[in-house]
Structures are given as structure tokens and as C-alpha cells.
Backbone:
């Protein structure tokens, strides 16, 4: 009888390549996988349930509580329809007059829920509870939590029961040193919950070593390599035509999240120094508008182009247009410094040489396999020098293209998924005698 897996992830599961690969690998190996994620109310086309294959189902939980949705709809309609708003206020005033204590409290609560951080707490708490309830519904054998924001759900579902179940903690990031996670509560939460897990997975050996120093055990390593591309190399979307770029211009590509710490501000500063080519950024994120404003102010609209996020399955068709690709993370936290970077291998699959930061895991691949040039990603002049060298040396560029395609036969999910299946199938666990805790890990 196949084992049942309940996997949690704190996103909409529309562009999460790692979780898609893991769920697919497990389901193809005979595990029955239910993935619990979050529905996006802004996307009416996004299904709340999907069956990806015979053994892989996706459940998207309602993002907002029904009561909150009702309050928001009444508020928004009142703002747009003044007559309705006036009538509603009159009716609410009569209710307060009839039952002052109850409806005065409800009024205060409604204001707090709409205008303060209490709304965020309510939404997140409701989602966490929904995941826990859904996680209890079936008799799962294994619970798999992706990142710290779903570890508490996995812990409660797997351990708050008479017959405890296996809990796997799959940490895609360094939770104690990453952008947006500066509050020490994250470290304390992970330090407590990590004592309750049965297995842990991290992205690379640099992060595994960091974890060993922090918690006293060396977790499993499952690298974030992409699927091997099977489509023809000439199967691509014509970016020159879409963005009205002259055919003679080379496309210098960044693809990924448009977030702080990705070196994108330095990339824009470097663009005027490029001897040729057009910088194209594909992706969305919090600082995209800020970067677009900067490009407008500097009058670089012919030199720098933006495209929205592209579905994962379609992305290779865009990547293949590039003369070179950028992975210029900045050392703003250990999470960035220790990253392996999925996009590095996406460029590789398309035979695109890279201009990359010189952080340990990235440098090991880029220089070790000769797939690009490492630069100082904090210095726009260094980035420009790397780009101009590749532009001026087409023979070296050709060698790097060839090296990238050859290296892709090594850095791919078809090889790496064996490490994930080993965690589930073949490895034996043993307890580490750590001060005040028992954590199992794979040797």
C-alpha cells in the first residue's frame, strides 16, 4: 500500500518550481501526495483543486475568512455607492441604539480588522488553522513542511496525535538570516520546532554546514536543479519582436523575482556602460515600479526593457533569446550569500553564459564548469566589465555556451531527485544526542 504524504507550502503554487519537482517525483515514485497551498482571490481562473497526475493533488485553501470578505465588500460598496453607504450607516446606528454593547463592540472590531495589523493576524491565523484541519482529515503517513511558515502546521498535524507521524522540514531558505525576517522570533520559532522534526532538507552543503553549527546536526541536501529541457533549442518566443528590439541587438537577460538584494539596482546602473545589447528583466516584485521609475528618470527606456512574470513551463522559450544571463545577488544576508540559485541552472539549460556574483555555491558552478564570469555584484563597474568582456570575446562566449549545455547533464532534477527519494525511501535515521533535544538526521 502506497504511503500518503501531506505537503504544505505558503504560496499559490503557480510558480514554485522546487515544490512542483518534489511533488512530481514523489507521486511518480508511488507516493500519494496532497499539496495544501493558498488560493489567490485576485485570480478567478486559478482552480481550488487540481489533480496533476494519478497520485498528485493540489488543494488551494480560501485566503480570506468569510466574515472578513463580507466586511470588506460592504465597506468597498459603501465607498462607491454613497446612497447605500448612508442607508447602511443609518441601519447600523439603529442596531447600536437597540443593542449598544453588542453592536458597539462589533463596530470597533470591524474598524480594527479593516485598518490595523489585526487583519493580517486574522488572515494568517485562519489559513494556518485551515491547513491544520485539512491536514488532519486524511490518515497521512508523512507530513512535509516547506519553509518555516508551514512548519508549525506540519508539527501539529504530525505530532499532536496518539500515533505520531513522520515530519520532514524542507527549508528552502536560511530562516535565521534572510531579507524580511529580521525579527528574532523567527530564529526562536525554528529553534523550538526543529527539535520536533524527523528529517530536514536544505538546498546545498554551505547551508547544511551553517545548520550544523547552529543546531548541531547536518541535514540532507537536495539541490534546487531544474527539469532537463526536452524541447528544441529553437523553440522560443521572439523577444526582439515583442519588445521592439532591433534584431542586431543582443539580449542581456535577468529572469526572476524583482526584489531587494538581487542586485537589480546595480544592474540598471551598469546598463549605460554596456558596449552593446539591451537589458531585459522578466519578472515581478515589490521594487519593480521603483526600478521602472529609475529607468524613466535616466532616460534608459531603449536600453532597458521589462516584462511581467512568465509561467515556469513557458520560461525556457524566453531564456533562449539571451546572449547572457545575470545572477547578481548582493550579500545582504547569509541566505543570499549561500544561495545556489535556480535561475543559474535555468540559464545553463538554455546554453546561456552568465554574469554571476562570486558567492561560494554559485562560484563553484560558474568557474568550476566554465559557464560564465564571476564579478563583484555590488559594483556596477565590475558588472559592466564582465558583460563587455563577453561581448568582446565571442569565441570564449561560444565555449561557455557549450560548457553550459554539457554541465546541464549533471545539474538537473532527473539526477537530483534520487536524493529526495532517498530521504523518503532508503535512508536510516539515528538520533543525535544534542543538549536538551532529540533530532533525527540522515548520515
Residues:
Amino acid at each position: 500500500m502506497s504511503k500518503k504524504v501531506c505537503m504544505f507550502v505558503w504560496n499559490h503554487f503557480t510558480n514554485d518550481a522546487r515544490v512542483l519537482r518534489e511533488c512530481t517525483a514523489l507521486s511518480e515514485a508511488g507516493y500519494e501526495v496532497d499539496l495544501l497551498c493558498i488560493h489567490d482571490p485576485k485570480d478567478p481562473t486559478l482552480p481550488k483543486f487540481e489533480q496533476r497526475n494519478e497520485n498528485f493533488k493540489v488543494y488551494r485553501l480560501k485566503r480570506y475568512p468569510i466574515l472578513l470578505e463580507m466586511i470588506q465588500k460592504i465597506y468597498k460598496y459603501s465607498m462607491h455607492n454613497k446612497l447605500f453607504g448612508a442607508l447602511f450607516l443609518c441601519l447600523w446606528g439603529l442596531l447600536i441604539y437597540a443593542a449598544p454593547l453588542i453592536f458597539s463592540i462589533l463596530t470597533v472590531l470591524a474598524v480594527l480588522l479593516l485598518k490595523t495589523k489585526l487583519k493580517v493576524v486574522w488572515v494568517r491565523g485562519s489559513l494556518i488553522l485551515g491547513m491544520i484541519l485539512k491536514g488532519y482529515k486524511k490518515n497521512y503517513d508523512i507530513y512535509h513542511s516547506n519553509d518555516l511558515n508551514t512548519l508549525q502546521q506540519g508539527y501539529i498535524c504530525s505530532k499532536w496525535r496518539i500515533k505520531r507521524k513522520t515530519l520532514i522540514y524542507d527549508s528552502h531558505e536560511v530562516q535565521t538570516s534572510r531579507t524580511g525576517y529580521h525579527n528574532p522570533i523567527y530564529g526562536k520559532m525554528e529553534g523550538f520546532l526543529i527539535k520536533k522534526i524527523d528529517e530536514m532538507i536544505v538546498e546545498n552543503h554551505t547551508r547544511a554546514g551553517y545548520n550544523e553549527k547552529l543546531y548541531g546536526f547536518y541535514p540532507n541536501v537536495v539541490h534546487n536543479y531544474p527539469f532537463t529541457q526536452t524541447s528544441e533549442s529553437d523553440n522560443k518566443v521572439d523577444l526582439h519582436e515583442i519588445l521592439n528590439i532591433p534584431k542586431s541587438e543582443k539580449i542581456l537577460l535577468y529572469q526572476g523575482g524583482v526584489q531587494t538584494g538581487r542586485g537589480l539596482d546595480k544592474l540598471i546602473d551598469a546598463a549605460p556602460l554596456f558596449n552593446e545589447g539591451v537589458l531585459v528583466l522578466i519578472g515581478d516584485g515589490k521594487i519593480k515600479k521603483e526600478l521602472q521609475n529609475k529607468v524613466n528618470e535616466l532616460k534608459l527606456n531603449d536600453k532597458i526593457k521589462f516584462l511581467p512574470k512568465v509561467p515556469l513551463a513557458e520560461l525556457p522559450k524566453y531564456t533562449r533569446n539571451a546572449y547572457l544571463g545575470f545572477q547578481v545577488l548582493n550579500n545582504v544576508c547569509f541566505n543570499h550569500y549561500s544561495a545556489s540559485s535556480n535561475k543559474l541552472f535555468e540559464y545553463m539549460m538554455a546554453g546561456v553564459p552568465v554574469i554571476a556574483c562570486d558567492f561560494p555555491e554559485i562560484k563553484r558552478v560558474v568557474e568550476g564548469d566554465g559557464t560564465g564570469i564571476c564579478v563583484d555584484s555590488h559594483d556596477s563597474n565590475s558588472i559592466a566589465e564582465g558583460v563587455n568582456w563577453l561581448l568582446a570575446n565571442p569565441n570564449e562566449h561560444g565555449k561557455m555556451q557549450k560548457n553550459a549545455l554539457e554541465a546541464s547533464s549533471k545539474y538537473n532534477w532527473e539526477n537530483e531527485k534520487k536524493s529526495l527519494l532517498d530521504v523518503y525511501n532508503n535512508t536510516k535515521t539515528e538520533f543525535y544526542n544534542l543538549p536538551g533535544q532529540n533530532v533525527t538526521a540522515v548520515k
Remarks:
- DSSP finds 18 helices and 16 strands in the chain.
